Amino acid sequence: MNIQALQSLLDGILMGGVYALAALGLSLIFGVLKITNFAHGAMMTVGMYVVYALASGMGISPYLALPAAMVLMFLMGFLIQRFPIHYIEKAPAHNQLLLTLGVAYILENTLLLVFTPNYQTLTVSGFDKALRVGGLTFAPAKLIAFCVVIVVTGCVYFLLYRTHTGNSIRASAQNDTGARLMGINVRNIRAAAFGIGAVCTGIAGGLLTPIMSIYPTLGESFQLKCFVIAVLGGMGNLWGALISGLIIGVIESLSGYYLGGSWSDMLIYGVFILILFVRPTGLFGKVNRREN
């Protein structure tokens, strides 16, 4: 493998981490609420614009703006689930889909009104020069984003499997009736889970702000890719989403290098379909076996 191919592999791994974090939020929401969130891409864009507005308005680094963005994204996710989504949880799947799609359009059009459709770019002082190690080039913003992704994924895992709140979230996902009998406020816990998913999505969007130009409908380009990663990793599987995100990032980058950018999406979805033929539950999903 030549140096250019190695560079493409590196870029794919770094970007794949950000994809994985965005898909992690989607996977968490589905794993707990069993709702396919079509507002996911729009929520990711909101995270981008929150970081952009705070960083450009206050003159601070976008990485320092991330904690404030996390709080705002959690509140937004909590309220979206607590009110509109809560009332259609038992409704047919197409009703849930249409509601989340409506939320997506509301968020996108709000961003259009506030920020206009113009492209916005955020330059981070001190991070505009690439780091070179041997023949490889490391974009500082991508390297920081990848490190943040690993830390956030570890924190979400700790929250879900090592805390009382996490136990309540998993109990509600498995059996909400049993969780209520144990004294768990299922309604608030499910809203909190949606809020945590929104935080993951918002962080992913915020990490992309120094890397690419943003515009109000940018999230639509990530929506389907996040679904592919979440399903490929096994819906509700945290580490599965991370590994699948890296796989998709590498496929996208290497296919772009060897075959050209127009082949990337076709190859991603082609590999996705082939894997689902072999593993319908995804690479890391549980296979339900029937006992005779």
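That was protein one. Protein two is written in the same sequence-then-structure order:
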Amino acid sequence: MNTTAVIGACFGDEGKGLVTDALCDEDTAVVRHNGGAQAGHTVRFGEERFVFHQLGSGSFRGAATVWAESFLPDLFKLWDEYLAFKEVSGSAPKIYACPDTAVTLIDDVLVNMALETSRGAARHGSCGMGINEADLRTKAGFGVAMADLWGFGAERLFRRMAEIRREYLPKRLAALGLAASGEYGELLKEESVLRRAAEEMCRNADKTAPLADLSPYGSIVFEGAQGLLLDSENTRFAPHVTASRTGLDEPLKFCRRHGLVLDRAVYVTRSYLTRHGAGPLPHECSPDEIGSISPDRTNLPNPWQGSIRYAPHTSPEFFAEAVSRDLKGRRPPAAVLAVTHLNETAGSLRFISGDIPAADLPAHPVFAELFDGYYTSFADSGLAPLKGH
């Protein structure tokens, strides 16, 4: 079995879905290990274009999806993605989950939306999916796991969610300084909201199965969400970061739990920078100043994150900083750089200090020190090793 971690090197939206898809076949299990339904990983399937949220981006190639213990799936939202994939591919996706995988609840989403709305112009850039709220609630002893969903019926799940609303929610709202009023506050009082969510979650849990054994798979691909610059411990960009670890942490923990060894880390970047959500973006500019940038059809403007933003990379040294920190003391046998969207920048990475042609990366001292190989992509699908690597 070979194991690869696909990691975003920037603020997210680097092309992790494209890379994951290219590394998969029907003998692969794609492990989703951080974040939850907020991911938007785009994959081209024939003439179709599909955005993955909770399914692994190798699903069109027959790869199975595995939800790790550190993933926070939203069973309420799963059905739309499950049905859309089935309609496009003609087959049902294979979804397995670790029994201890905690799930996101509807009240987590509502609290997240209420909190982010209350921040007004000082928003953190949350996508309003409740992932941090689910994590905090679970750590406070009010978790609901996949094993519970498989064992509960809708009525029992409803009672558990009502108990959490009764015993945990008032304390959480008080800690946040939020009143149970307004649009989201009223929904947090509605019993019908919990009942509908419980019914939908139980129906969708039936589309998943407990993870029993990884030995049937010839390869494991860990598909990350967001990027290293949004890692929960990246203080440079706090508080505009995610609640989870976005690098090697969770793949390595999963490997230890399941008796695996990580063979390779593939760090993914566009040939320029993007950021969808609030927070600093050094050297932000219009896309026209970067190159022939195609309109982003995945990261559409929305009330939570606004419009996607663009910038050139700051410097090779700045880029290397986050990757070096992620690799420090735990470097796998191979570390690889994958550069996407090169067709939009004439085959070069855009830096403030000047362009670096992708073909020159192996000879560049900063990149040569970090990486053992390179992948390039000049379209919205397909991945090729850089010649000689």
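The chain is about 30% helix and 20% strand. Keep this in mind for the problem set.
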